Amino acid sequence: MRIVVVGAGLSGSLLAQGLSGAGVDVALYEREAPGQAQGYRIHIAPEGDLALRACLPADLYERVLATAAGRRGAGWRVLDPTLNVVQETLVPETAGEAEHGRHLTVDRLTLRRILVTGLDVQYATPFRRYELLDDGRVRVFLGDGRVDEADLLVGADGTHSPVRKQLLPHAEVVELGITEIFGRTPLTDEVHALAPAVAIDGFCAVTGTDGRFMPLAAHRFLPGAAGEDYLMWVVAGPAAMFPADLSTMDKPALRKTAADLVSDWHPSLSAIVGLGDPGSVHTTTMRTAQPVPPWDTVPVTLMGDAIHTMVPQGTSASVALRDAALLCRRVTEGPLLKAVHAYEAEMLEYGFAEVERSLRSASNH
Predict the structure, then answer these.
(1) Of 3, 146, 238, 304, which residue is most buried, by most CB within 10 angstroms?
(2) Distances 105 to 41, 207, 292, 306, 323 between C-alpha atoms, Å
(3) Around 53, how many Cα atoms within 13 Å sit in the side-chain half-sphere?
(4) Contacts for 189 with CB less than 8 Å, ≥ 6 apart
(5) Beta bridge partner(s), residue 60
(6) CA-based diameter of the chain, in Å?
(7) Is the dihedral of CA 42, 233, 352, 308 positive or negative?
(8) DSSP letters spanning 251-297
(9) In the prediction, which pLDDT does 100 show?
(10) Domain 2-73+93-173+289-364: assigned CATH number
(11) Domain boundaries, given as residue ranges, for the chain
(12) What angle do CA 336, 342, 346 make, to 5 degrees?
C-alpha cells in the first residue's frame, strides 16, 4: 500500500510516522521550504497526547516530553485592560494522566521538528491536483512537475487546502471579521517583570469592551532543553480597527501597529509587544469551517484544518493529532475504502462538534 500525504504540519507528519511504523509506504509533500513554518506555544489536550503516543516511536515521544514546557500552566484567565482577573478556568492535575493522556504545553516549531524526524519530507513541493484512476488508485500532480500514484491521498494541507477545494468544492471556510497580529517576545527579566503573573503561570487573554483582545502565554522549556523561553502574544480585534495596508507592512511596522492598538490599555502590554522579536511577527485572520455533510468515500480524504478549521481555543492541534491517529489505525485495520469511510464518519462528528464549541466559547468571551 502507498499513501501520499500533502502537508507536513502536525497531523500530516504524525500520520506519516504512524503509517511508516506500521510498514506502509508513505510519501510526504510540503509546499513550504524547510524552516519557513510559523507558530509558537500551543496546548496539547489529553487526546492529542494519546495520539502522539500511538503514532510516534518511543524515542520521539520521549523527546516531545523532554522539550515540553517545564510547567503546563494552571489553566486560563480573562483579564480586563487594567490586568485585573475577571474570569478563570483552572485545569488541576489529576491522577492517571500518564495513562489517560496528559495536558502538554509545547512549542509548535519544536514539535514539528520532532514529528518529521526520520521522514523523507519533500519540501517546496506544492500539490496541484489529483485524478481518480479506473483501478481505484489516485494520481497526484505536484507543482514541480512530478506525478505520484497512491492507494490513498490525504490532504493535511491547512485551512486553504487545495485538496479540499477539489474534493469538496462546496465546503466553506468563513471569515469572522477578526484580524490578528501575533509574535513572541524573549522572556528576559525585564519582560518577566512586565508580564501579568497569570501569563507566566498559564494562558490568559486581555479583553476590552470594543472587540479587542490580547492572548498572552509564556513558554518556558524544561531545564536542559534547547530553546529560548518566550512570551507569546496576539493583538486581535475587528478588522476595521487595523490599517487597510496591513498586508503590505514589514515586520517592524506590524509590531508597531500591534503595540499602538493596545497603547490605551495597561502600559505593560504595549511594552511587551514593542520588545518582541520583529522576525517573529505575522498577521492573519480568524476563520471557521461550515459543517460538511458526509460525502461519497473515494481514495482521497482530509485531516485537521483542511476539513475542520476552527477558532483558536486551545484544542485545534489536539483534534488534528487525533485525526492522524484515528486514520492511521483505521487504515492499518483495512480494507482501505471501508477504513477511510469509518474514519470520515467519526472525524466529522467530533471535529465539527469542536468547531461549534470553539465558536460558541469565543462568542462568550
Answers:
(1) 304
(2) 7, 23, 31, 23, 19
(3) 15
(4) none
(5) none
(6) 65
(7) negative
(8) HHHHHHHHHHHTTTS-HHHHHHHHTS-GGG-EEEEEEEEPP------
(9) 77
(10) 3.50.50.60
(11) 2-73+93-173+289-364, 174-287
(12) 145
Class of domain 174-287: alpha beta
Place of cell 501520499: 4
- Over the chain (365 residues), what is each successive 10-residue block's mean pLDDT? 96 98 97 76 90 97 84 75 89 63 86 95 96 98 95 97 98 95 95 94 91 92 75 96 94 97 97 96 94 96 97 88 98 95 98 92 66
Amino acid at 56: L
- Find out whether 133 and 150 touch, Cβ atoms under 8 Å: no
Count of CA atoms in the C-beta half-sphere (13 A) of 253 = 8
| Cα–Cα dist 151/3, whole Å | 6
Helix (H, G, I), strand (E, B) or coil at 124: coil
Q: In this structure, what C-alpha cell is assigned to residue 234?
A: 496576539
Q: Three-state SS across 64-83?
A: HHHHCECCCCCEEEEECCCC
* Spatial separation of the C-alpha atoms in residues 40 and 228, rounded to whole Å: 12
Length of the chain: 365
Which cell numbers in the block locate residue 167?
Answer: 474534493
Closest CA to 331 of 11, 19, 6, 4: 19
Measured from the Cβ of residue 209, the count of other Cβ atoms closer than 10 Å reads 7
